[in-house]
Design goal:
Number of helices: 5
Radius of gyration: 17 Å
Distance between the termini: 17 Å
Strand order of the largest sheet: 3-4-7-6-8-12
Strand content: 15-25%
Number of strands: 13
Helix content: 10-25%
Oligomer: single chain
Structural class: alpha+beta
Largest sheet: 6 strands, mixed
Length: about 240
Amino acid sequence: MTPDWWIKANWPAPDGISAGTTLRQGGTSQPPYDSMNLATHVGDDAQLVQANRDRLIQQLSLPSSPVWLNQQHTTHVINASKAYDQSPTDASYTDQSDVVCAVLTADCVPVLLCDQTGQQIAAIHAGWRGLLNGIIENTIATFPQTTLMAWLGPAISQQSFEVGAEVREQFIQHNQNAEAAFIQGSHGKWHADVYHLAKQRLNTSGVNAVYGGQFCTYSDSERFYSYRRQFKTGRLASLIWKS
């Protein structure tokens, strides 16, 4: 896939691990989903989405179709090698070759994981609800006792992500250190740093090798979709697989 379509994960993953996030260019979808929308649940033409998914497989030379999840901001994790149903789930993992774990995002944090031996991989959809309730911890729990690394794909920046005081309080109740992820806004609102919150949860779970996290989906409308910027919009896909 050309650089106009794809951000390759910049991390020291083992040989055989491929990972990254699609961009919004290069597809067939029409405005406001223009143009590489990969989500079927946002109101886009289903045939165009399928054409985009087919193009994704071809351009990235994927070994199989991605395992698409029924994302509902849950903390449920499935084995992508045995994904036979579409119950709500927001992360998948596998220790099998040629299985493509995938999550769709448009502001939430996509977290890609692998162990340092390249035996197991995972993809996580981490919105603030999932972060708060433990989607990262639940996914890490599927790995054998080993050393992991993580790459954080495109998400909304702190400057652009405003939340209510109740959201901040819930994070602080879980971990007092979460206070550092919030700066005060106006009218009783707070700006949340979802990258900071994700890194904090990863570090607390023993994952200290964390890469990525320098993007902003809200401010970069040319490359990224953003739900906060435009309610009716497409979704990016973050993918990881092993050969």
